């Protein structure tokens, strides 16, 4: 892992950046906790503990860790059916889920398995992200309209709310739409412009003085950290699969953020260290009563543009949130419609079908993977974790199916049969090559020489090489002079080792 010397103390730039990120993180933490089906206090506790823990291990000085939208949706899906949302049992399950997510990421990071972050194919990631953005947007519709969600399904609740205009709160709609418009309009301004805290303060003042804005956040009692021994460990079996899904899927965003910022600033970064830092962040969040967290792109960009120079900016962010926790009573009169507007403005860019449609032009098969993942995510909401597993499984099947398709070019020159297999010769594709060559020899009884050209093979595993040896031996037993040629350097060791000593030469085609 790339090493980075830790600074002795934060600079003034880190202090400014850390406080700036905290000003945005606090209302977002409340909004994302509600999205996950948790009380605001869970989001605030996660927002305080996670950045501090992550800052000790991260390789990126800019990555802002804390509650994020996609992970919050995955938490809602992973805990669906285990306990009613916003109950103490649900809160404890979310905390234990964070511990498991942290343990998985920490173990992968210590095992230097950061490469696993790249195993989720682009079609699956694009299909899931697009659908997840739409689900998150729909989940905010009831709050935006000033009504309560009727079911655990964001899609069903949104449709029910939209279908009952008589229950809408006009002032809630006004507060929410103004929030969305303001956040979208200021995107042309520098990222350091404090639009989120400005909106929150103005909304609180207006709501408190006029009574408008619809349903409010209400009291925000911050619970004391739970005793780890009192967490619902009996639910471990039900939480393991969601934990692995969140650990891998939720890590895609921190990886993308760190990689992009490292490229832009020409700094070292390490996916293994980011796994460790995100693991520590989730462990800390769970142990204080929070829930699974990840890396935020918008807050990371703000952190960088606000002047962050070291990882200490994350520590400052967490400490700032911790210091403000006793004052969160001032958020009680914040309209939920404003929080809905903040979430909608943050995720609206994810609701973009163009990346999915682009796969139609690039690859019809991969378009099928992306489209299937997209539809499954919408159909199974809130169990989006199952949709992710289905998408990954489909992508794996497609990959194996394509690997099975060993293309074989053939030419007959006099009494010589030239065979040019292209692709990957491994245990699953080797039988098709054997069958094809046997059929060719049966169809060409005058052939006395067989040459298998390997220049178009990208990889040959042991089973593939053994099958090749058996094929050549069988041809020789039939009186045919058989061998291989055009062996690329990358395959010479495995081919030479397996074929040597078995009366089979590696021939040169002349």
How would you summarize this macromolecular structure in one to three sentences?
By secondary structure, the protein is α/β, with parallel strands linked by helices. The protein has helices at 12-35, 40-55, 69-79, 88-110, 122-139, 141-145, 154-162, 170-185, 195-210, 236-249, 252-265, 271-287, 297-305, 312-324, 336-347, 354-362, 364-380, 384-404, 430-443, 462-477, 489-499, and strands at 64-66, 294-296, 407-413, 416-425, 449-453, 457-460, 481-485. Helix content is 60%, strand content 7%.
Description:
- The structure is a single chain.
- By secondary structure, the chain is α/β, with parallel strands linked by helices.
- It is built from 21 helices and 7 strands.
- The chain has helices at 12-35, 40-55, 69-79, 88-110, 122-139, 141-145, 154-162, 170-185, 195-210, 236-249, 252-265, 271-287, 297-305, 312-324, 336-347, 354-362, 364-380, 384-404, 430-443, 462-477, 489-499; strands at residues 64-66, 294-296, 407-413, 416-425, 449-453, 457-460, 481-485.
- Helix 2 packs across helix 12 (271-287) and helix 17 (364-380) packs antiparallel against helix 18.
- The chain is elongated, with a radius of gyration of 28 Å.
- The two termini are 49 Å apart.
- 49% of the residues are buried.
